[in-house]
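Researcher: Next sequence.
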Amino acid sequence: QVQLVESGGGLVQPGGSLRLSCAASGFSFSRFAMSWYRQAPGKQRDLVASITSSGTTNYADSVKGRFTISRDNAKNTVYLQMNSLKSEDTAVYYCSNFLFWGQGTQVTVSS
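Model: Next structure:
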């Protein structure tokens, strides 16, 4: 069955960095576009970044220039490098192949 397992979340100070990972299994990873979404308390789940099977990336305006999505097809893993983190980046971050979702990983940006 399809599994998407996120890791790398945690508590970080404003201005800091984190790298999220999402290990995928149960489908042909290299053929699928992958994405990261986030959901803050009381808010809807929003797209943060996506990457196509050929490596074309897309970002929400709020994270452009700070976040980078990448993938390693040999490891069936997609990453989200997050730099210059702000308090408004605090949310649960979810990995998705646009059909299935991971369980999410909490990112908290606070001093």
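Model: The chain is about 0% helix and 50% strand. The CA atoms of residues 7 and 21 lie 5 Å apart.
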